[in-house]
Structure formats: C-alpha cells, structure tokens
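Need residues for this backbone.
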C-alpha cells in the first residue's frame, strides 16, 4: 500500500488545480529558514508507559495569570511577501492567531509541499501554557510533574491540530469523488471569514478533541482542568468546543462537513453524516505517523530533549495567519 505522501505526489501531478502553486514545487533555498525539531506523537498506551522515564523539566516557571496572554512567535512569520499579503487577505479586522493557534498551527498539504506540511508547535508559547496548566494542577491539589503536564499539553494541542488535518483529508476525499476544488475555496470563503468565532466550526470541532482525548480522559479532574482553560478563551469557536463533548459534537461535525461541500458559512439542511470525518487510527491515512509534528526553537530548543525530539532541521516559514 502506498504511503499518504506518495499518494499526494500522485494527486498533485494528476489534479494540480486542487493545490496551491506553492504546494506543487520544491521550496527554494531562500525559504528554508526556520529551525525545527520533529516531535513524536505517541499513542496513549505508549504515553503512559514512557512517563516513568521522563526527563525532569527544570526551566524557570512562567507564572502568568492570564491564560491566553501568550507571547506569539513572530520569527516564524514572513510579514511582507506577495504570498503573505495574499494569505492575510480576508483575515482583516480579525485576529490572525488566537486561542490554540497561539500554541501550534496546522500547515495544509493543499498549500505546503512534501516534507513541509504538517503541525508546527511554537516552543515558547507551549512552555508558557504548560506552566500555567501546571500551576492550575497545584492549585487544585493534584500532584503532577511539570514534565508530565508538558507532555499531556503537547498531546492535547497535537490532537487539536490533527483534527484540522482530518478535515482537510475529508475535503480531499470529496474533491476526488466530486471532481472539483473544495478545500481551497472553503479555506478562503468559510474558514478565513469565520475565524475564530462561532461559525468557525472547524475550530470548534478541533477544540472538542483537544480536551476529550484518551490521555487526559482519566481521571476526570485532569480533563476538567484542560476544559476549564478552554472555557476561559475569549473567542467563541474555542469556548463552544469546551461546552461540547464527543457525543454532542456530532451535529457540529455534520455542519462542518456541509460547510466543506457547500462552501458557505451557514450550510442549508446539513445531512446527518456524522462519522464521515475520519477518526485517528480508523483508516490508514488517519494514523498520527502520516503527519509530521514539528516544534520551532523559540525557547532555545530546550523542550526538545524533554519531548524526545529528533535532530534539528530546517523548513519553510509560515505565511498564513
């Protein structure tokens, strides 16, 4: 069976109209600017089995009391190029990065080439957010090491961003079945124009799977800490996701699939298609290892050893958002 990357190369060749021009060509040397490390995304059973070998996190503790006053990593962003100007279009008068997207972003394979699409964590914001969660654990009388909280946070944020991949995968499946471009017009006319508010259903669905996941599902007090952090987010796409769960989110997933197929903010009569959005490990292409999880080095790369990251490599800058 061919790998997803091999299949994407074939589809990019046979159906180039579905993909952004930047995704169809190798990046130039001038674009290989950002140092990152690859972070393994463990399965839940591996996560629990490996924690007894954890490396202690001895870095200074960030004790900021505003949950979402996260310092962004501007070094990853190219501010003034033709592509960055075009990709910022339709984000006017709205935050380009808010909520969980302060911690990590998903780079779609419709826009980024082989080896460079995937999930990009931002190291300094991840440390800030994990530190605040660690302090919240302590306030609630739960004894969890900072390393364990960092790993739980990385897994939860990775789940959120992985749901963006699953949404794009659903769009690709619809494109191949219907013979028309879906993801690119959806991104321009629905996602950008609704982010990060209530009609941005993709962020709402992804937020559910951030806190309702097998690593922090038990005990329920741990799950509640993550969920409460999301409830404090000022943007409704995220706070709405904190109010749902794996059962109540089904109608939102129906509407998200309808947003994709109809390319409108408020779809007409969303059909009951829950289950069409893939779940991790249900299908071959929904396995975590198909997506590259990367972390920049805005905190000096000091989280890498704790997260068992791979060697340093370089990849292209992020333009959108």
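Answer:
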């Amino acid at each position: 069976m061919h790998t997803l990357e091999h299949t994407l190369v074939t589809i990019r060749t046979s159906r180039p109209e579905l993909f952004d021009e930047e995704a169809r060509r190798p990046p130039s040397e001038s674009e290989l600017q950002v140092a990152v490390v690859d972070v393994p995304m463990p399965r839940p059973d591996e996560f629990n089995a490996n924690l007894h070998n954890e490396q202690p996190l001895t870095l200074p503790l960030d004790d900021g009391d505003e949950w979402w006053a996260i310092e962004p990593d501007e070094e990853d962003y190219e501010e003034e190029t033709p592509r960055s100007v075009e990709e910022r279009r339709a984000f006017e008068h709205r935050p380009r990065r808010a909520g969980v997207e302060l911690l990590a972003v998903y780079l779609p394979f419709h826009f980024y080439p082989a080896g460079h699409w995937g999930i990009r964590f931002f190291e300094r914001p991840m440390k800030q957010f994990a530190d605040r969660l660690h302090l919240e654990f302590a306030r609630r009388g739960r004894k969890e090491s900072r390393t364990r909280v960092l790993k739980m946070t990385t897994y939860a944020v990775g789940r959120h961003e992985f749901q963006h991949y699953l949404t794009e995968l659903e769009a690709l499946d619809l494109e191949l079945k219907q013979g028309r471009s879906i993801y690119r017009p959806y991104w321009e006319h629905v996602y950008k124009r609704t982010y990060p508010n209530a009609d941005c259903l993709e962020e709402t669905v992804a937020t559910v799977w951030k806190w309702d996941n097998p690593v922090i599902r038990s005990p329920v007090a741990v799950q509640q800490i993550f969920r409460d952090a999301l409830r404090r987010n000022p943007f409704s796409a995220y706070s709405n996701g904190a109010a749902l769960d794996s059962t109540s989110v089904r109608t939102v997933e129906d509407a998200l699939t309808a947003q994709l197929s109809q390319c409108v903010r408020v779809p007409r009569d969303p059909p009951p298609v829950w289950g069409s959005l893939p779940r991790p490990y249900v299908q071959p292409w929904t396995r975590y290892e198909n997506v590259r999880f990367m972390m920049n080095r805005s905190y000096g790369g000091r989280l890498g050893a704790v997260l068992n990251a791979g060697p340093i490599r370089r990849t292209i800058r992020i333009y959108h958002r």
